[in-house]
Design a protein that fits this description.
Layout: H1 6-12, H2 17-28, E1 33-37, E2 40-45, E3 48-55, E4 60-64, E5 89-93, H3 101-116, H4 133-141, H5 143-150, H6 154-165, H7 170-186
Antiparallel strand pairs: 1-2, 2-3, 3-4, 4-5
């Protein structure tokens, strides 16, 4: 079941519930509005994503959608996926880390000002689509699969191709391909279940 509220999200991440609540209070003390996207709490300004909350097994985090543009408040920011993530930055917290709300508020306020100024890093458009060899072979064997794939938008095609290609081991790429084939044939995007 997709998460529909902050409360549901916090209940799914009991280990970090109290810390998530503190971060939520900080975010709601600003002009940001709370919404749920991709199954997590996201804080928006005029429907533009500014900050998100994330909870994982060993850490929880504040995500800044245009964190790469922050200039004054940068020492805690990390890029979770070098080479992949252009704009997104996060501040990670582990167990027993002290939440310095006054410090974090400066990051959030700068992110809000950037959004108000209309500054954002736009994703690169029309990047060539690279189809992994495993998927090419599957297309040669199954024309129905190929035509179903071609009905998807470029973005959804890219989600499938990158999901398969990003596996380091050939066995994992083949396993991912096998899981994707029924979805492609059914016209279901890889990440459709996370979209509203």
């Amino acid at each position: 079941m997709p998460v529909k509220s902050f409360e549901e999200y916090a209940e799914k991440h009991l280990k970090w519930k109290e810390e998530l609540q503190q971060l939520r209070e900080l975010l709601l003390s600003t002009e940001l509005e709370e919404t749920i996207k991709w199954g997590a709490p996201i804080y928006v300004l005029n429907n533009k994503n500014v900050v998100g909350l994330g909870a994982f097994k060993n850490h929880y985090a504040l995500w800044f959608f245009n964190g790469a543009l922050l200039q004054q408040n940068t020492e805690l920011l990390i890029n979770a996926q070098e080479e992949k993530t252009k704009a997104l930055r996060q501040i990670r917290f582990k167990e027993n880390d002290k939440l310095l709300i006054s410090t974090l508020k400066k990051y959030v306020e700068e992110a809000i000002q950037l959004q108000k100024a209309g500054k954002e890093i736009k994703p690169k458009k029309n990047k060539p689509l690279t189809i992994p060899s495993e998927l090419k072979e599957a297309f040669q064997k199954d024309t129905e699969l190929k035509s179903a794939f071609e009905k998807f938008t470029k973005g959804k095609q890219r989600e499938f191709t990158e999901h398969i290609a990003n596996a380091k081991r050939e066995a994992t790429r083949i396993s991912r391909l096998q899981k994707c084939i029924p979805m492609i044939k059914a016209g279901i995007g890889l990440n459709d279940k996370y979209r509203k």
